[in-house]
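Researcher: Please predict.
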Amino acid sequence: MTPNAASGPSRRSFLASTAVATAAVAGGVPLLSACGGSDGGSRDGTTSGKEAAELLPAYVAAGVVTPDIPSKNGSAVGFTSKLDLAELKTSVPKKLGKGGEVTIMSPFWGSPPKEDNAYYKAMNDLIGVDVVWQNQDGNTYDQKLGAVLASSEVPDVVVVPGWNMTGKIPSAIIGKFADLGPYLSGDAVKEYPNLAAIPTDAWRRSIFGGKLLGLPMPSSYVSGIVPLYRQDIFEKEGYEVPRSCDEFMALAKDATNARAKRWACLDMKWTAFNAFGVLSGNEKSLGWNQVDGKLVYRAETDEYLEALEWTRKLFAAGVVHPDAKLGKSNAADPGPKFAAGEFLVYNQDISQWWSRTAEQATQNPEFKIWGMDFFGHDGGDPTLWAQNPATIFAFVNKKASKSVIRDVLAVANVTAAPYGTKEYMATNYGVEGTHYTVKDGVPTKTDQGNIDVMNAYVMVASPAATIAHPDFPEVAKGQVEWQQRTGAVTKKPTFYGMQIVEPARWTNLSNDFEQLEDDIVRGRKKIGDMQQAVSDWKSKGGDKLRDWYQKILDENGPAAG
């Protein structure tokens, strides 16, 4: 049985699964035909500056638990010590729930457990709320989400991942969900101490249409994607970790031996974007930045084309594993062939640093995966761009009663408990003996735990970004220190942290860029095709969208910090 990470990322760790990673990268296509409607009109743009400050909850740092590694340069906090259940702290001394029933619709990856399972019962008893789950297939969640939000039958709580906020979904969020400001803004949040400890940047991202609507999952603003490599093979072969694009190419050619079924890497497009300082493509507003007084979109930059060209050269040189040539960027599960040594480097969510370590610990003890620092293309420090500080949100039905809203906040106050507390263990591990056991300070889920304690309560709200692996503390330390080094060369783009709702007429303008990127790096299209696509993008609305963003900038100013 594979050990389980006591990793605060909770919802973030789902991105490590193939299904969710694919959904997050590709984005969904909502089937929403009528959002807002009689429930209220949409409000394009954003809320920032003084207006946003009045909506934000007061920040009160959690003093219940002290991390082994504090946050630095935007990193998560880290825990490297063994877990002592007898020393767990209490962060919710009394039940805040009033015994009401709350229905929650949320994406779920895997087979949902039975409704009356021991985990759900224990959590509901701890919170004082009867939560009824309406779990939906995470792989097709965008379709269900669109249908539900277009109907009059909206559950009490709906979880919306950032990658599903396309098309008319943002307008539906503004029209369908309750203003939490009266319960959380300013000092009001102090009634819920664990929510008060959520970083302010995450709350700022929870403002939609001029109101505080979302309960966020905070995340580190440094890149969530890491170039992961086989450190054991590097050491055995005497390979040096590359510090420039030329060094990477030289290493890749040296390491590749097709006859021996070994290639250097998978598609390294995401690393190339970081090496050349390309603005983020994870969210549309992050793709814009003010340069010499003018807003520039990522696809318009020379760095963007240079990154694609370098990645194309890797494919052309034959150093990329054949699997990566077949489809989109790293879409298939790379684990087995990475473990077999068929390739040495790949880009993936930071959570796979631990999960690959854990799954190979007993069957392949020499296996060692580690995170490669991003390098500047010319050998200098890279210029990296911040990701948004919250990516998944839970919203409360606008028609919910005050008692239901308070019960939802009671749920969130428990699920946002920090690592090292009884509430965190209950949320992430379930019931000791039934869902997990602890040996030598390492909690390990039982078979029942792997069935019951899945992506449910963790979807409502989460603590500040946390990394903790009692089974592999060296990995936790490595991850946090990687984030700290990465954060030292990470800048915040113009619209960092702002929750921006683009006008629906322009939201699909750049949808075809990712497929074109993949075609270019695989040699199916040329750089000139991207230049033409960018030209078309400008004429079809890109330039007008630029003017629209400029107005937001003029009215709100750039991101703080």
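Model: The CA atoms of residues 48 and 87 lie 42 Å apart.
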